Amino acid sequence: MSSPTHFDLIVIGTGPAGGTVASKIAETGKRVAIVDERTFGGTCALRGCNPKKVYVNAGQLLDRVRRSNGQLVADASARIDWEKLHAFKETFTRPVAEGSEASFRDSGITTLHGTAKFIGVSTLSIAGELYEADRIVIATGGRPRTLSFPNSECLISSDVFLDLSQLPRHIAFVGGGYISMEFAHVAARAGSRVTIIEKNSSVLSGFDPDLVKTLTAHSHQLGIQFLLNQTIEGIDVLGDESRRIKLRDGQTVAADCVVHGAGRVPNIDRMQLDVAGIQHDQDGVSVDAHLRSQSNERVYAVGDCARTAQPRLTPVANEDARIVAKNLFADRPVRSPDYGMVPHACFTTPAIASVGLSEEQARQTSADLDVRTGDMSDWSSVRKTGKTVAGYKVLIDRDSDAILGAHLLGPGAEETINLFAMAMKHNLTAAEVKSTLFVFPSFSHDIRQMI
Predict the structure, then answer these.
(1) Residue range 161-169: average pLDDT?
(2) Is 141 labelled a binding residue?
(3) Where are the alpha helices (DSSP H) in 239-357?
(4) How large is the angle between the packed helices 96-106 and 16-26, nearest 10 degrees?
(5) Where in the chain do CATH 3.50.50.60 domains reside?
(6) Is 84 annotated as a binding residue?
């Protein structure tokens, strides 16, 4: 057997995190390789955040036209042309793989294709060839969680949903998280009958329950059906485009397409991590404060496949990559990620967003909590977009005037939440934020009324 090809660094995964690490280390003159088992570019650019927002923007545009009710535009009878929308999405995703790989090569990075499997502490088998490296970074992201009911394999992933050139007449989403809610809002506005099946008593468990309740009621008005506290017993495949979902309580749901929205897990199960002595579990690779494997000092993990307490979001992965690039070849790793306050949003229409503590968490932290909450649907900033639901909840500690959490629902929520995140990261008090001059009129200016 021939000797393994040696690199200073091999990065497994070509998304934003893996690409950042590879590029930064290549700039120092190290010999770097990067590998992916799929086309180069990663989930966010090819199958996630970016193409999803193309669909979300179409839904938002249509929603605003329809909500105008003849007051903002003369004709509110617009519709989404799904085939053209899909073609437009392709203008964003199609160039990614070739452009990404070319960019790596131009930076002197060797590009490899195939599933990377550990066959030693620092040795990999990739497409039948052997490679070894002084450092290896695992940046493989996530994959849909495996479901165990009969015929679960007939579910399509969010990847496949984004590649549908024709819109199914009736779509069922399994799970009530980000993926299901975002796509459900687009599909319902585009003309599909939509059903969301959720095992818990509410959807969007990571957001403020009061605002979620408002959003759920609004979603129901769009025609989205919610089946809560439900468990799937199995799916009958009745034809190429016909499914019957059987629920534990005896109900059945007919659908032309069933989408997996029941969560994602680290994409590490085919890498033979045990062979390299890399500790891991269902939540990812066990890492220390510097994102180095706790059991194999040559290996680091970033983003969705690293076991940390952070949400699995692109900004978190990017921060991981920045830190790992500094630690990899230092005499000893000393940098740790500074996540600050990580905001998150679900791009329904309108969007829902959060940062910091929930009300329940804040009540456990603050002895004197001020819960400032309200309905914004009649505020001028919201009414100007056409009538929709909107609300806020801001959590402030009365003793220190510190902002402990912020939760928003409504137009611009996904943008306004970033200002709360910045204020909280830099320990601005509610009074200091309130005294800041914002552009008027703007959604950001509404912060002063919220606090």
Answers:
(1) 96
(2) no
(3) 314-327
(4) 20
(5) 5-144+265-328, 152-262
(6) no
